[in-house]
Amino acid sequence: MNTLFKNIARFILLALFQVLVFNQLELGYGIHIMIYPLFIMLLPFELGIISLLSLAFLMGFLVDIFSNTYGLHASSLLMMAYFRPRIFKMFSPIDGYDPIKEPTFFDMGIRWFLSTFAYLLLIHHFWYFLIEIFRFSEIFSILIKTSLSVLFSFGLSIVIQQLLYKKVKRL
Q1: Contacts of 114 (CB under 8 A, 6+ apart)
Q2: Contact assessment for residue 76 and residue 142, using Cβ atoms and an 8 Å cutoff
Q3: Closest C-alpha among 58, 64, 62 to residue 43
Q4: How far is residue 14's CA from residue 6's CA, in Å, rounded to a whole number?
């Protein structure tokens, strides 16, 4: 499948699921399930920083429009996109990234995916709750919401990849 078409389909599906399903869920302790950061994570390795930030802003802005959050999602997704190249560089293989592979746990391995996406999702969620609450006196509440939301969002992102990107076993 064409990479452009695949990324457009991912953008639309993740935005729709976020806005229509996961934004409507009310879980205890202020847990927010956010799957749209998976779009930024799964973009190609060789994508430039300007394109990456532009796509992050577009996705975040779209979720903000339908969530009535006034730039909260756009800001946190921009923060995640800004740190993506740095996190990828920290966990880069010795011989670099293969441009044919995608940043999924099927292509890069579960250890690499767990490390990189966990850091990026932690950055995204921490910034989201920090800006949402906007009081350092509530840092404990911010940390609780961040950690619980990261766990749920991360788990659901793994399930989504399992359902959508099953690796074809070669004989």
Answers
A1: 105
A2: no
A3: 58
A4: 12
Q: What is the pTM of this model?
A: 0.92
CB atoms within 10 A of CB 4: 8
CA distances from 157 to 64, 136, 164 (A): 20, 29, 10
Separation between Cα atoms, residue 67 and residue 127, nearest integer Å = 17
Return the structure tokens found at 94: 């010795």
- Look up tokens 């074809």; give the residue: 168
> Two tokens at 154?
């991360």
> Using one digit for the tens of pLDDT, what is the confidence trace for 63-77?
999 999 999 999 999
For CA atoms 90, 93, 94, 98, the dihedral sign is negative
Distance CA(131)–CA(125), nearest Å, equals 10
Region 14-32: what's the mean pLDDT? Answer: 91
Q: Who's near 108: CB < 8 A, 6+ residues apart?
A: 101, 102
Q: Which residue has the tokens 């930024």?
A: 40
The answer to whether the beta carbons of residues 64 and 23 sit under 8 Å apart is no
Q: How many CB atoms lie within 10 A of CB 96?
A: 9
